[in-house]
Amino acid sequence: MKKLLIVESPAKIKTIKKFLGPDFRIMSTMGHIKDLPSKTMGVTRDPISIEYVALDGKEKTIAELCKAASGVDEIYLAPDPDREGEIIAWHAAQELMKVFKNKDNIHRIAFNEITKPAVIEAINNPHSIDMQRVAAQQARRVLDRWVGYEVSPILWKKITKGLSAGRVQSIALKLICDRELAIRDFTPEEYWSIAGSFKNAAGTVLAMLTHISKKKFEGKNKEQTDKIVAELKKEQFVIDEIKDKKRAKNPLPPFMTSTLQQAAYNRLGFSVDRTMKIAQNLYEGVSLGGNTPTALITYMRTDSLRVSDTALKQAHGYVSQNFGKDYVPSSANVYAKKSKGNTQDAHEAIRPVDVSVTPGAIKQHLSTEQAKLYDLIWKRFVACQMTPAQYAQRQVVINGGKYTFKATGSTLIFDGFLKVYMVEEDNKDEKVKLPQGLKEKDATNLVKIDPKQHFTQPPPRYSEASLVKELEKEGIGRPSTYAAILRTIRARAYTTLEKKRFLPTELGMTVTKMLSDNLPHIINKKFTALMEEDLDKIAAGDLERDTLLNDFYTKFEKDLKEFKGGDAGKTAQITEVNCPQCKDSKLIIRFGKAGEFLGCPEFPHCAFTSNFIRNEEDGTIELVEKEQPQELDMKCPKCGKAMREMVGRFGKFISCSGYPDCKHIHQEKAGFACPKDGGDVVKRKWRGGTFWGCGNYPKCKFALFGEIEETPCPDCKLPALIKKTDPKTGNVTLLCGDKKCGYKK
């Protein structure tokens, strides 16, 4: 009996193939095969109808799957076990049923780990496509399409062309913008601390002033602090109390998607997107020296902390054998998710498939990044099933008159889970060393007083890790969407990254304010979190897809109508900077193809424009003087006037000083003719960098993207090779520009 098993990613094929016999043929959809049309809405209402079309380039994939399906007896659909995977399976089934008439022999299977037992068990226990999950994915897709397609054109009209809005991405951007406003509005407040060094025969204790007359000490200014310091110098001090107790530090739970992204960012410096790509490799399988790959971790898109009984037993056995019984808890450690939102318990937490496959044993077979991430996942999982670390904690209370000082220190007495997974300490107790011979009621001398001035700090800007943490805390997004959300807001011109922190641009701030003012029901984190919960309800069968969509569109349509009917002119932010040219008006922030700039609102009567920078601390604006064009010792070949160096959208270029009467632009020519039509090959610039193209474009579309070396390809004789330099090593690779040739050196 011939069987076809269809997976989502081609990387899984080799891993799964070794588990199954010759009866199985394994193919891949290579991700989604169908989606809403790109140039039309694709969704109609009353009743709601959704149009799907084949994605560009996927017609061939669909045809190959259908051809294979026509020659088998059974089909197993095995895309990833989440909502996106479910709709991929549904779309594949729709296409396959055109050629495969026995619908009862089309099965949906899913596995959380790519191991032989998991795959065989899935095949032996097939089920139907979960249409409730499909409905939940459809609802999310339609909501995003409505917001994107209905709101973006309004932004083009009111701000500038090319802008986009997204239902969840706009909330993430709003978090970034709200944080920036909080930083700008922040007023530092002064406060003081007083540390005292106390010494007696047992040793020296560094303690902080905590109470005055049993009231908490709050140092507000220098005058108050100086007065207290003067009084302290007159007091006699005694060790009033010594409190000893044991403190346990519990292990952290195993990773789920959001916590893995945060830990990989903070510990390894990996971006969220990079983390997910590496985790995908580890999940799909990596070659460990043989010809077939081995899956190393369970499914990496999950918000569950559940661990299977088999994995728990395996972890406890490993810990007992390698560290001893004292490190094994009396019963399995169980963890619960603390953030908002429903947990999708279809998956386990992220864990190693086999604990006995240690990071050290396979390090030589992995890339550096793969080895680091696997090490992190393996250690976190093993540690989560170990006993707590134990500390002996001592607090020393020192009194002198009405003044109370306290010092707290901790000593590690049993490392527990810390033997495997070290954690960063939130407190400083464990860095404070207290003398052993201290006794209650012993006198001690104040030998040094150290008053320090402090100022409260503004909230920090979001990093990728802290933004994911905030999204998860607020119940915004789901494991499969965090990376996409961050990828989108980074790809737009709405934010920049400074010192790995998100800084909103003026465009981002303007778009966010406009959306918040005009679509308050949608650009609202509480609403977005509730919407995520409703999508979960659809997946669970507790809410109808069309009920959710119709309720959403009723409110959305009302807000949208008012938004469209607002001020028809372009929106501009008025600044406090006077126009230096006409002196009549305050400059406004405008947005063009090259980004934001300041302009005079009296245009065209006053044509003043200027670039600007904004002070990060107080938000004030400073004009940036324009770089004046430099005339060159070069004559225009058309009119004879001097050529000059200008700055445009894509950097510097050379043009005639007689513009606009003469529009000649100098172009660097290659030393060879176009191999297609014999025209000049000239250097051009675009957003992605530079390329060399035929001067007869668009009649001839010959192009080489990147820097070139004018050496003919030894295989196909193309007159130049593309030159790529590794930024880290400086190594140069020469590539043929004809992909069919494939020459590489």
Q: By helix and strand content, what is the structural category?
A: alpha+beta
Query: Residue ranges: pLDDT <50 for 5 or more in a row?
Result: none
Q: CATH homologous superfamily of the largest domain?
A: Topoisomerase I, domain 3
Radius of gyration from CA coordinates: 33 Å
Task: Give a brief description.
The chain has 745 residues and is α+β, with helices and mostly antiparallel strands.
Task: Give the SSE layout.
Layout: E1 3-7, H1 11-17, E2 24-28, E3 34-35, E4 43-44, E5 49-50, E6 53-54, H2 59-69, E7 74-78, H3 83-96, E8 106-108, H4 116-124, H5 131-158, H6 169-185, E9 190-200, E10 203-212, E11 215-216, H7 222-232, E12 237-249, H8 257-268, H9 272-284, E13 286-287, E14 293-294, H10 309-323, H11 359-362, H12 368-384, E15 389-400, E16 403-414, E17 443-455, H13 464-473, H14 482-491, E18 495-498, E19 501-504, H15 506-518, H16 525-540, H17 545-564, E20 573-578, E21 586-592, E22 595-599, E23 609-614, E24 621-624, E25 630-635, E26 642-648, E27 651-656, E28 669-673, E29 680-686, E30 689-694, E31 703-705, E32 707-709, E33 721-725, E34 732-736
Parallel strand pairs: 1-2, 1-7, 7-8
Antiparallel strand pairs: 3-6, 4-5, 9-10, 9-17, 10-11, 10-16, 12-15, 12-17, 13-14, 15-16, 18-19, 20-21, 21-22, 22-23, 23-24, 25-26, 26-27, 28-29, 29-30, 30-31, 32-33, 33-34
